[in-house]
Design brief:
By secondary structure, the protein is an all-alpha fold. 86% of the residues lie in helices and 0% in strands. The protein is flat.
């Protein structure tokens, strides 16, 4: 099934698959059950606990979206003054500014490029 891929490519595929599955299971199954149990122990009904979980998830997503936009604008220099400085000093701003994002992209590009090159070589050898 995974013939023709290097050990590094197979490792990256398995890591990506496992990491995605772990995050999905935790976020979609474990945390809501845990949240509902904690809420139930504190006298909140199951229906209200589910609603509060939905509100918390929505608020968290909204906060991430707004912060991502602010940080992106700060990185490209569209913001001025203290807001720009605060965004650049945040963890995500440092992640982008220090080139960690670029390194991740290069790793994916490397794997895509080597896989594409190998497919081309295999096709030319078959002819």
């Amino acid at each position: 099934m995974l013939k023709g891929y290097t050990k590094a490519e197979k490792s990256w595929m398995l890591y990506d698959w496992a990491n995605s599955a772990f995050a999905t299971i935790i976020a979609a199954i474990i945390l809501p059950i845990f949240f509902k149990e904690i809420a139930h122990q504190n006298g909140v009904s199951d229906v209200d606990a589910t609603a509060f979980w939905g509100y918390a998830t929505s608020c968290g997503t909204l906060i991430c979206a707004v912060l991502a936009a602010i940080i992106a604008l700060a990185v490209v220099g569209a913001l001025k003054g203290q807001l720009k400085q605060a965004a650049q000093q945040s963890a995500a701003g440092g992640y982008i500014r220090d080139g960690s994002f670029r390194l991740d992209m290069n790793a994916d590009h490397f794997l895509y490029e080597s896989t594409t090159k190998r497919k081309i070589e295999n096709n030319t050898q078959k002819k």
